Amino acid sequence: MPADDADEAWERLTDEPDIRGVEAARIDEIDGWQVTVWVMEFVREDPLEDEYRQRMARTLRAVSGVTSAEEQDRETWFVTGTPSGQD
Known about the structure:
By secondary structure, the protein is α+β, with helices and mostly antiparallel strands. The protein has one domain (8-81). Helices cover 21% and strands 36% of the residues. Strands 1-2-3-5-4 form a five-stranded antiparallel β-sheet. The two termini are 15 Å apart. The model has no long low-confidence stretch (mean pLDDT 88).
């Protein structure tokens, strides 16, 4: 998908895009990917929130080529390494 401030961007849309949408944007200037998970806007109570965040980071780190995945803010993780956008 075209992205104004990203060098490459991928978006996964479903029949429920506001809930199940995911976007990955590679930004060469910061040498990594920003992965945004839209459902996290609505997940605000523990234990679900804590469990989801841990699983999301673990899942991102398991992608081939990823060297780190850390939360950047509520809905976004910063991923480094050499993963493909599609992965």
